[in-house]
UniProtKB/TrEMBL annotation:
Keywords: Lyase, Metal-binding, Signal, Zinc. InterPro entries: Carbonic_anhydrase (IPR001765), Carbonic_anhydrase_sf (IPR036874). It catalyses: hydrogencarbonate + H(+) = CO2 + H2O. It comes from the Bacteria. SUPFAM superfamilies: beta-carbonic anhydrase, cab. Binds 1 zinc ion per subunit. Residues 1-21 form the signal peptide. It comes from Candidatus Protochlamydia naegleriophila. Coiled coil: none annotated. This is carbonic anhydrase. The keyword Kinase does not apply.
Length: 230
């Protein structure tokens, strides 16, 4: 059976019109790609970032590494008032130190003149809350059988259990957040000889910090250097 000529013509015209509408749309809602493109054009034309791109286009040498949560409210560049090229930012839910994160930070420490590595958690972290909920559900026992969230939740659960936190206590979330930050910092040291040697040689320090969603303050809770571990 021969294809319907008018149907093919309609589909061709409709497809062309859709492509043209997509390429020419300027407005869009705040939830679609066109809106992001509009904001990107503003970024491209901003003199501040034109200057920063020109300075960093051929290379980077960030002094700071910030391991932070992927939460949309915790971008390190904004929190620390920095521009392009200043902060190397591995971001992952729950600011956990998995192998990819550790390798990324080790690469940064080994390649550039990094002086400070910050492990920054934040108040009311959904990943930490989720780990607490799962521990409570399982009576305080770490359960590795829970689908794709294992890579995020299990390290946080381990941090909570290792710290001996009362998971039913009134301050369980705050204490667990701090324990998770400390656990991630230890993981950086234990999993990477590059990072641990850099600390021991005085090349870098590792700072643990909790970010306040309300005040915007990144509060120091500990520092690991070649003199003390606290």
């Amino acid at each position: 059976m021969k294809p319907n000529f008018f149907l093919l013509l309609f589909l061709l015209v409709f497809s062309s019109a859709s492509i043209q509408a997509t390429s020419e749309c300027e407005c869009g809602s705040k939830h679609d790609w066109h809106y992001l493109q509009k904001l990107n054009r503003k970024f491209i034309k901003n003199p501040k970032y034109i200057k920063q791109r020109k300075k960093t286009a051929n290379g980077q040498n960030p002094a700071f590494v910030v391991l932070s949560c992927a939460d949309s409210r915790t971008p390190p560049e904004l929190i620390f008032n920095q521009g392009l090229g200043s902060i190397f930012c591995p971001r992952v839910a729950g600011n956990t130190a998995g192998d990819q994160v550790v390798d990324s930070i080790a690469f940064a420490v080994d390649t550039w003149n990094v002086t400070t590595v910050v492990v920054m958690g934040h108040e009311n972290c959904g990943a930490v809350s989720g780990a607490l909920d799962r521990l409570r559900l399982n009576g305080g026992v770490i359960d590795p059988e829970n689908g794709v969230l294992n890579a995020v939740l299990i390290p946080i659960e381990k941090a909570i259990v290792d710290a001996g936190i009362d998971i039913y206590g009134p301050n369980a979330l705050e204490e667990s957040t701090r324990a998770n930050i400390a656990y991630a910092a230890r993981q950086l040291m234990e999993k990477s000889a590059i990072i641990s040697n850099a600390v021991q040689n005085g090349q870098i320090i590792i700072v643990g910090s909790v970010y306040s969603l309300k005040t915007g303050k990144a509060k120091e809770i500990f520092v690991i250097d070649n003199c003390i571990e606290g």
